[in-house]
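User: structure tokens for this one?
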Amino acid sequence: MLNKTGFDLWANHYDQTVQQSEENERYPFAGYKEILNTIYNKVMQKKHSNVLDIGFGTAVLTAKLYEDGHNIDGIDFSPKMIEIAQVKMPQANLMEWDISKGLPDFFKGHKYDSIVSTYALHHLMDEEKVPFIKNLLALLKDDGKIFIGDIAFATRKQLESCRKSSIDVWDEDEFYFVDEELSPLLNPFCRCDFYPLSHCGGIFVISK
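Assistant:
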């Protein structure tokens, strides 16, 4: 798994790397544009809303939301990614933070219409994902939603199949979402729906 320095070095070429993977419909970014477009359209159902982006990267998604009048807060652990994103969104409130430490105290007094995260939460181990999502739920307005777009599978069997077919590039240090394992842990305290959009990617929509 890339560390902070690795992501800084990758930042200037990140979008190109994603595009190559997506165009070839290969792990890890098959379905990337559809995932981002779907989340964008869902967030856009409210005008001038408050949005928190967890792991915004080069702000491909949030810069568009910013242009369309939404108020953007965000965290990312790469200073270079933040530098790139801040140029696109000069008035956005962007903070350097490692999500393995939970959430920064700054955001805990805020309420959001939408919380989005694309291709970031797979850096959390499976046992860290549920408490992290619980903490995000506390930041939602009553009718707010969390949209997680990531490398994700409906079943563990599908994940293993993808791993075998992509073994030459598979990242063993990342922890991908498996709906049949995650949703039962979340559903007792929230609603969690999974929408697969490619053979290795999809969206979780989570609400109170």
